[in-house]
Amino acid sequence: MANTLSVRCCIAGGGPAGMMLGLLLARAGVDVLVLEKHADFLRDFRGATIHPSTLEVMHELGLADDLLKLPHQKAPRLRAQFGELALAIADFSCLPVRSSFIAFMPQWDFLNFLAARGARYPTFTLRLQTEITGLIEDGERVVGFQAVTPEGPLEVRAGLVVAADGRHSVVRARAGLPVQEFGAPMDVLWFRLSRRPHDPGDPMGRFDVGQIFVMLNRGEYWQCGFVIPKGSLDQLQAQGLPAFRHRVARVAPFIADRVDELQDWQAIKLLTVQVDRLLRWYRPGLLCIGDAAHAMSPVGGVGINLAIQDAVAAANLLAEPLRTGQVTTEDLRRVQTRREWPTRMTQRVQLAVQNRIIRRVLGSTEQLTPPLALRLLVRFPWLGRIPARLIGIGFRPEHVRTPAV
């Protein structure tokens, strides 16, 4: 016999979108339950970039100062090296925000911070080790979740259920919402290498013949991303780990003295890149946000921040209908209408970078010629404000409109 709960809003997934939406709704006086299938948030090689747009939301909530007391690294600019050409891709100091940098912070610290702030409100509940297994439906309307917990099965009835359970969303699959796939020419291998005091400080991307390598400063270590052609991991592993170490050392010579820290393939994690978007983000009683609505490319590292923007917009539009118990399908449509355009535009830019730059570099066999856009950045540095704006703030930044009850 399943236990049964009843809430105004139940959110599947304790990632950035789910935790931010839960905090905002509880702050506005809405009875909200967040379900997370894991026992904690401690998982490595998850997105760790908190962009200026997200920091601005935290300022509006009065939480930025406390958040930035947690260990993090500030990145006021992003750099790249394309063959022999080195340049700053984006300088965030020009942005009209209170925190003009990207903060690199372990995602588990950020999520624990949101959970702790949410717990200060009596209408906020977070249940860990609670895995969604199905939807409860009444005709066409979704009215709740079925889940399993260590104590047994659980049924949650809710006025609104929200899928924020990521790009492999169980809720999205169960709901049968149509999705458009855009594809990607690459996957990414993530791993750590130690960082020395004399190493550069800014995040950097290195583009060389047939290779792309990303390095993110995480204080005592580099979080490294080695970009490979889609589906080529088996071929890479067949060449052997020493050959892979050699490729890393060749594309980033200053870390050649520490590639032996990669002792086995277990230390190297595969991110299978996918880019997609739901054609419709909702059904009666159900809304998808974040990666559950639109899986983003890692280009620009903006996925977390798009998810946060979805959560802010959803809270702004739905808090009052949820308080009164009058959430309509039209309310859910308004959320998609608000967030679909910036999602489309961001994915359009990402797909252009994937197809015009990344695909070309990975397939190259001769010395690279920097793309025209990069050559223009060298000649006219003020053009760097454009990528700074796109990466740091995005196409339609959201602002907190919900009250603090």
Question: What are its keywords?
Answer:
405 residues; FAD/NAD(P)-binding domain; 7-stranded mixed sheet; 20 strands
List the helices and strands and how they pair.
Blueprint: E1 3-12, H1 16-27, E2 32-35, E3 49-50, H2 52-60, H3 64-67, E4 73-75, E5 77-82, E6 85-91, E7 102-104, H4 107-118, E8 124-127, E9 131-138, E10 141-149, E11 152-163, H5 170-175, E12 179-181, E13 186-194, E14 204-208, E15 211-217, E16 221-229, H6 233-238, H7 241-251, E17 269-271, E18 276-278, E19 282-283, E20 286-288, H8 303-324, H9 329-362, H10 372-379, H11 385-392
Helix pairs in contact: 1-4, 1-8, 8-9
Could you characterize what this model shows?
The structure is a single chain. With 405 residues, this protein is of the alpha+beta class. It folds into 2 domains: 3-182 and 274-392, 3-Layer(bba) Sandwich (FAD/NAD(P)-binding domain), CATH 3.50.50.60; 186-229 and 231-271. Helices cover 33% and strands 28% of the residues. It contains 11 helices and 20 strands. The chain has helices spanning 16-27, 52-60, 64-67, 107-118, 170-175, 233-238, 241-251, 303-324, 329-362, 372-379, 385-392; strands at residues 3-12, 32-35, 49-50, 73-75, 77-82, 85-91, 102-104, 124-127, 131-138, 141-149, 152-163, 179-181, 186-194, 204-208, 211-217, 221-229, 269-271, 276-278, 282-283, 286-288. The strands form 4 sheets. Strands 1, 2, 8, 9, 10, 11, 19 and 20 form an 8-stranded mixed beta sheet that branches. Strand 15 (211-217) and strand 16 (221-229) form a beta hairpin.
